[in-house]
Specification:
The protein has 271 residues and is of the alpha/beta class. It is built from 9 helices and 11 strands. The longest helix has 22 residues, at 76-97.
Length: 271
């Protein structure tokens, strides 16, 4: 299978792409600014807002995986342009130049509300107000409205393979005043690849699917794994289901994480 990746040089892309290559796929990576793709992949100089370059990038592809996104920036206009307009541009290019290709959109569990009454489920109404999750919801809708074969994968906190994401958590936890008992769904990079394999095989077609491991960990535990420390607290937890997702749909469609918890990852030294 020939796969086009956007965001191939990002935190997720640099770890997913070698796994796709190892699975025997031909991978074509959109790169900008003189960056190179991982060994074995074809680097394609293209831009999400340049339709001619996208046409060439999509020639002969069987699937497109859209990872490119902007997250941590105060520039909301940039978030919307990158996450929604970029997705729309790619969707239009796939419709025009590779209409039989499957398109897979990486989305986020941040689409679910903090005050939810249970772990976020795919059929829950979503109406986030922050720019990042709101732009992802809009991009999901653009994909639903297309004529393409599509799937949306909603990822929670992503970690592993030395990506530094877990090590950065103590700083974020202190800045955002996280309650130590708050639990958060997680997913290792290995199982982003596990989920992508199912999506590429068509198991998630026409659906948004939560992808997470078996056990949401507490912020107290996650910060400790990241090398930090939170002050313990017995105060009531104001939003007990915030940042947790229900994975029953993914399991019913065949997803099983190979790294079942962050504790298994720590034991295996693959954080």
């Amino acid at each position: 299978m020939t796969i086009l990746l956007t965001g191939a040089t990002g935190l997720v892309g640099t770890r997913l792409l070698p796994r796709l290559l190892a699975a025997g796929h031909t991978c074509r990576a959109i790169v900008r600014g003189g960056k190179s793709a991982p060994e074995g992949a074809e680097a394609v100089a293209a831009d999400l807002f340049d339709s001619a370059s996208l046409a060439a990038a999509l020639d002969g592809v069987s699937a497109a995986i859209h990872l490119a996104a902007v997250f941590r920036t105060p520039d909301e206009a940039l978030i919307w342009k990158s996450n929604l307009d970029g997705a729309r541009s790619l969707i239009a290019a796939v419709e025009a130049h590779a209409p039989t290709a499957r398109i897979i959109l990486a989305s986020t569990s941040h689409v679910y509300g903090r005050d939810q009454a249970r772990p976020g489920r795919e059929d829950d109404p979503v109406a986030p107000t922050q720019a990042y999750p709101a732009s992802k919801v809009a991009a999901e809708q653009a994909l639903r409205d297309s004529r393409l074969t599509w799937a949306v994968l909603r990822f929670p906190f992503v970690y592993g393979d030395g990506d530094g994401h877990l090590a950065a958590l103590p700083g974020h936890a202190a800045q955002l005043d996280f309650h130590p008992a708050m639990r958060m769904s997680t997913i290792h990079h290995r199982d982003i690849a596990t989920a992508m394999a199912l999506a590429l095989a068509g198991r998630f077609d026409g659906r948004a699917v939560n992808i997470a491991d078996d056990l949401p960990a507490s912020m107290l535990e996650l910060v400790a794994l990241g090398g930090g420390r939170l002050e313990p607290s017995g105060d009531p937890l104001p939003a007990p289901w915030a940042m947790q997702v229900d994975t029953a749909l993914a399991r019913s469609l065949g997803f099983q994480p190979t790294v079942r918890t962050v504790f298994q990852a720590a034991e295996g030294q693959i954080l």
